[in-house]
User: Fold these one by one.
Assistant:
Number 1:
Amino acid sequence: MLYKKGFTLAEVLITLAVIGIVAALTMPALIGNYQKKVWVMQLRKTYNVLANGLDMIKADEGEDNLSDTQFYSDRGISTVDGHIRKHFNVIKSCTSDDNDCKFSDYKALNGEKPNGPPTFGSSGNYYFFLNDGSIIGMLSPTGDNLGKLIDFVVDVNGTKPPNQYGRDVFRFAYAGNKLEAWHCNGTDGAPCVTTNQGWECAKKIIEDGWEMNY
């Protein structure tokens, strides 16, 4: 008589335990990589929306340079709001002095509180909530930047966590008549590392072929 040999209960349990251990070790990394790809996809979309919208503002006023438009020279909330609402799918806009624009939980890439501006909630800035769930903050220029550029901070997934520079929050500047990723003091090569604020990270992501390699 022939007997078919099967797996014992102990062997099955050991196999399941090994599978469980391997899954526990690999799943966090897989989930983390997936989340990074989602943030980068959202960043790329928000970047394109912002760049295209600013180009349409120039076209509206028949100007080649954004610095020649009323949008740039006025910077008043009524002028800015009118242009932004025309070219972006805005569901709500407000200034940082409005109670529903008080963002106090934003973190630097290293997890600490950002060391100074730009951050959501700074006085005198404008914020636009888009229908795709993102937020675009237009930061009032000061000091050496006055009249030279417009500083933007974008949160690609709105008020959802982690609300952290370099993850779902990124900084851009409109300078030299184009939208570009912000880089320190107008120079290249500033590091995007976990010990930094994370303001440089959009630049690194773009340079790395739209990959979050950190």
Number 2:
Amino acid sequence: MERLGRENSSSRKHVVVIMPAYNAERTLRRTYRDIPKDAVDEIILVDDASQDRTLEVARELGLVVYAHERNRGYGANQKTCYARALERGADVVVMVHPDHQYDPKVIPDLLEPLLRDECDAVFGSRMLGGRPLDGRMPTWKYLGNVFLSAIENAVFLVYLTEYHSGFRAFSRRYLEAVRFDLNSDGFVFDTEIIAQGIANGMKIREIAIETRYFEEASSIGFNRSVLYGLRILKTLAKFILHRNNIWRFGQFEPARGECRR
């Protein structure tokens, strides 16, 4: 599915949407429908051994489909997504969860700073809009998000309103600069790839987004969220040790020397 309505021009950046999918049969069509087709060139779905008809629906929609033979985890799914997008010549990669929790209609806003080469990544933030609970985000999840984001800002010495949104876009430069293949196969991958980018001088921006919490939308429960938070704290500790040359971690080293600013 190439050139989804975009004008064919060699000066345009090749924009690829990636969908890390697991049991997304009931929401995939809605998510696909809301993607602005004139803003993207390809849509890739990587299925992590779903137990429903996610693969069949993706193929019916004409998406570029890859499938894991066994369930490998959210982080592992992203690794495949980014690797395949880069192989297909992506200049910009936008992650859209196929559970319809994030509104893909704002993809053009996410893309704008990247298409102008003003930054290396753009994250959607539920906190920038001012009313994150309007989308029915659980209060405990909101408080945990704010708490962890404050600690992350203090450690990374940058300011982002949210580190835990799954709606984000990366430049090819960012993805080629970091060793995302060394990251976790679980949910903490999302924090690790940010830590890698900051360690290698990547510039990140945010835009305001809204989210929807409903039965079909995927969301980890309280116990798994606590474990996720502990793994984030472990990542931050490793980052501090690495930055201060106390203990170096290959995970935070640049994938190629010229990427560091």
Number 3:
Amino acid sequence: MAAREADRSLSTLFLQHLANGLLDGVYYLLIALGLSMIFSLGGIVNLAHGAFYAIGAYLTVTLGPHIGFGGALLVSPVIVALLGVIFERVLFQRFYRADPILSLLLTFGLALVAEQTLRMIFGAPPLSYSIPPWLRGQIILGDFIYSRYRATLIVIAACCVAALWLLLNRTAFGRVVRAGVQNPDMVGALGISLSPYMMMVAGIGIGLAGLAGVLLAPIYSIHPAMGQEIITPAFVVVVIGGLGSFWGVVAAALLVGLVKGATIGLGYPQWSTAVIYLMMLLVLLFRPRGLFGERIQRFE
């Protein structure tokens, strides 16, 4: 009887680690989708994407006491998206047809500037933001117990992914964006300028990064270098999923999160990060285009 109870306890603990891994995959996904969209359409390797995630978290700390968490959840991603549009108009659009290494250097410098700016404004010590009272508590399903806030976060992210898929696949805007990813010259020959579409893609993608920062602010420490910590796993997700594949990025993010959670649940937390990079290495060796990668003429 005691052995059976112990096995049940271990199984429940393993499921909780899987759920936490799924949560990691969800916020990797919110960052990686924006990275993939911006690179697929504009060819910009945006190393500053993590900085916008950090800005979203700091906006939550700044705005939350005045308009509440619900207000910050609505306002902060919009502010971050507007910042993304400004940077796209002022900086990114100059590098669409340039060597991607130039945009990489530009956005690397932008990330460093953003990090130091946050450090000067808010200081280097980590900040925290409490989970709002109306989202506290636990969800209990038999022996399985999970945070209500974390479950809500997963639901919000799933709704965002569904809305983005509908935008890209069921609207005229999405049809132009997908055509621009595959063959921008043909789109130009039809008399359609991709410039306003790229501006909107940058705003949406960077706004998603800001949303991730807002959602993660109550459960992770907020510090100036948090953007640098998230950007590498997000790029790993893009590489594994495949450039230009919406569902590839979704599947890769969830796979990475679940594998990370399973590794921790099996008792090897020290390997949880290394496993992610090992997955990327295997994908690059056997399928360099990614699990669901598509052929994109402009990069071939």
Number 4:
Amino acid sequence: MPTYVYETIPDESTQKPRRFEVFQSMHDDALTHDPDSGEPVRRIITGGIGMKLGVLKRSTVVDKKSPAATACGCATGRPHRH
């Protein structure tokens, strides 16, 4: 289950919003109020883990006799179905 970041929505423009984290299921509805104070809140989208994965380029030659190519379907040109 992911941890979501929420921010309070202040009544006055001079107040600073307060951020807090909540551990909840992806299937749960987003909170509308702080469980502790009852203040209205909004969910904040934060940056996740940036990952750059290598990809096969068109110029990459696949050894169609290798066990990996046979298992993934690269040898036949069709994806492997479980």
